[in-house]
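Subject: for your reference before the review

Hello V.,

The reviewers asked for a structural picture of the protein, and I figured it would be easier to keep everything in one thread rather than splitting it across files. Below is the amino acid sequence we used in the manuscript, unchanged from the supplementary table.
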Amino acid sequence: MIIARKRVPGLSDAALSRFVRRAGKAAGLAGTVNVLLTNSIELRSLNSRFRNKDKSTDVLSFPVPAELRPKFAGELAISVDIAARNARELGHSAANEIKILTLHGLLHLAGYDHEQDRGEMAQTELRLRRAFRLPGGLIERAASAPAGRSRPLARPRKREEAGRMKVR
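And here is what came back from the structure prediction:
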């Protein structure tokens, strides 16, 4: 289900739903994924509530406990504000940026952790971005960011933490 509290030019709820299904399947997820498209204020609130980080971020992933799988894979929250800004800076559409953030979040729901997996998530994200014809992704942006500039990346969630994280 797509909950669009903030609209993305050039991306309908139906198109994003189709992308979530295809990308989720490609990432190895079974079950539905809810996606919240909202503003930076709400992402900051969620980031503070669930990660104790009082700052906005671009995407948050909320896996579900094992007993809810495979019918339900989890939830994503995405800041349309940050996505639009990043898209402008990187020279591609906000719709593509939302898909990049969605793909990144789906990989976290599938159990990938780019902070600890020795490049496995980065390789998978690169392969899937190419398959979906998307521009550069979050992991490679963070790796190539100039010194002193940090990208607002969500901390990956491990499956065993899932019971504590729910968007309400």
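For the response letter, the relevant points are probably these. The first helix runs from residue 13 to 26. The beta strands are 2-4, 32-38, 59-63, 72-79.

Happy to draft the paragraph if you're swamped.

O.
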